[in-house]
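Why predict the complex rather than its parts? Because the way molecules touch one another can change local conformation, and only a joint prediction can capture that. The input here totals 811 residues.
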Amino acid sequence: MLEILLDATVRAGTPILFATLGAIINERAGIINLGIEGLMLIGAVAGFAATHASGSLLIGVIAAFVLAFLAGSIHALITVQLRGNQIVSGLALTMFGIGMTALFGKEMVGLTITGFERIAIPGLSLLPVIGKPFFNQDLLIYFSFVLVALIWLFFYRTRWGLAVRTLGENPAAADTCGVPVNLYRFLAVTIGSGIVGIGGAYLSLASTPMWIENMSGGRGWIAVALVIFAGWSSPRAMLGAYLFGGITAMQLRFQAMGTTISAHILQMLPYAFTILVLVISTMRLAKGASQQPESLGQPYDREDRK
Amino acid sequence: MPDFLQIEHIRKTFPGVIALDDVSFSVTGGEIHTLLGENGAGKSTLMNVLTGLYHPDRGEIRIDGQKVGFTSPRDSLSCGIGMVHQHFMLVPAHSVFENILLALDNVPNLFNRKEYRARIKQLIDQFGLDLDLDSPVWKLSIGAQQWIELIKLLMRDCRLLILDEPTAVLTPQEADRLFSVLQQLKQQGKSIIFISHKMREVMQISDRVTILKKGHSIATLERGSFDENRLASLMIGTDQIPEWQKNLQMSEEIVLEIQGLSVRNDRGLSDLDSFDLKLKKGEILGIAGVAGNGQKALAEVLTGLKSASQGRIMAKDKDITHSDAKKAYIAGIAHIPEDRKSIGIAPDMSVDENLIMKSFRNGAFSHWIFQDKKAIRRNAAEKIDQFAIKTGPDGSPVRYLSGGNIQKVIIARELSEKPAVLVALYPTRGLDIGSAEYVHKVIADGADRGMSTILIAEDLDELLKLSDRIAVMFRGQLVGYVDPRNTTREEIGLMMSGEKQGVAG
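Output of the joint prediction:
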């Protein structure tokens, strides 16, 4: 029972995990990206279309990354190069994503592909309790584990990562140290967006191997909230994503068991949880234990006179 | 052989302002070259051009005779030019190690932590500094943060170091230590551009001095051919300096007393820690201390911007810390804030409107619920005349005024209600000498009328000149009082670093 619940937890949490990781990379560089929801949809539709056309899941994942990368570059152009308003640009990106994917996805509704299949890792998958949920999964899930570790190593063990973190804290300091501020910010936004796209592709290539209009169902917004919960750290993003996944898995389980509680209320639970998480983590922020990058949301203009 | 650095005919404009207009000077290897000028003369702008932060409209920079065009700080760094900015370029949340590491050249992206830690540690030890590499920068004193900035440049082997008013945040002793390090670096053949407006220091360490005035470089003088008077007259020119006389105040009546006051900051640390202070009627009480030792919290708690976690504030033997009387009393305290543009004025409103901000409820400026524009205008004309404020066209936003005139607007407003107590936080910071003298005159005149002033300043000369008594603060506590007519800069310096106690009471 616990194994099954944990398994569903990981599968429900993974798309949000990818999206949260991508958002963390954006925000660490000081750029707020509220286009996550739109980027997930773009990733989902691109991944599905490419896989359907080529028959290759790998090409699907790559297509999801590339298309979300390109869509993210619109946000990067507006917020980094043109120093536009990050909130407005991000919201526009989400609207754009919802509209475009509905338009181009129309012909794909009802088509099917063979999605990612489970591959058991020898040895590890035999562990009690955690073996099956974590080590008898599909390749994208294993990739998400690797990504969590890589992003942590990138931020805390490489000079690039240090430079990106400095961009979020004090871009002027990075600039005077010779860091190309705009280039690095641009790359952080686009690569982060690409990773969000993979989260979208997980929905259409693994969770349910098909395209459904607006299939991200608000997960992008949950990712935006989880970034704060995670304190901009990738391991904690994993915890947050699985917490959300766990509640989703449980409410599905309740529904399957046929409780008398209305399905609508159960479906609401993960989102109510998100609000709760935001309240708690914001209270912690207000107490001064803030992990938030200090220059988050502020455009950088070298010649700005203060 | 050409000079190491030549700057020729640099011009830089910002929308509506000519910051630099035809500036030329040169720096040779192994010299300490001082840039002297009043605030607003263009020193910092010029240095930002030199470090590639600003792009000049005209003029050229040559290094070893070769023309260079800097498009970013990266370019100037690769030419060996580094700068300690007045507002430090540090990340408070990152560790000392991370801040220094980012500044290093040629660090591989996957670096060897141990190796780089050892190299940085070596340099820190070489200067006998006590810096914990893993401590986040925000926990360090401002003086220590400045050392980190200097180490960043030295690790990069910069040939030219620019220091923008480095001594503003140091005790006299720390400043002396900095100067001896600068002399060492000079002996190693490094060039240093030193920016200051403290004459004493300029005389002490400069090989040459270039004077900037209103965006022009007006003279470069060799050591031996300048003295304080000559530099001052070149720097100020023919501007009028108001004259004032200071009278000794003798009253022993205590108007305000602070007992064991503690104030916590956003990080939960104590900005003020069992702080005591007594303010006498009609006196100017100077507060000396290195920036960041609780001065700001003191001003904020006295003006009601922060509340105390412990201790008492007594106004004439009445405890007003938590009573309703506090609000009324504090409303009567005039406040010249530290950051005049962000909390001293409403920048986009006019001079007239800014001048009545403290008394807008006063019936004199209203008809029923509407503003009485005529009365407001009359009040402004009076104040502008009385305080010699140079304003633009009527009704233009106050932010277009110069720093000195903005300060006069604030002072005119704050003193209009004849306060009993004035809390002035760095009231002359960033002002030219004429405006600064004007501020001093207003404070001294106020004292003659019986107004008590708490004057928080960083320039010891200013404090020594103006104060009746000086209280020294260190780490949020009162170290003691000194008599400005009977003390030395050294004594105050030792008290500012907590090494010496003064007299109590």
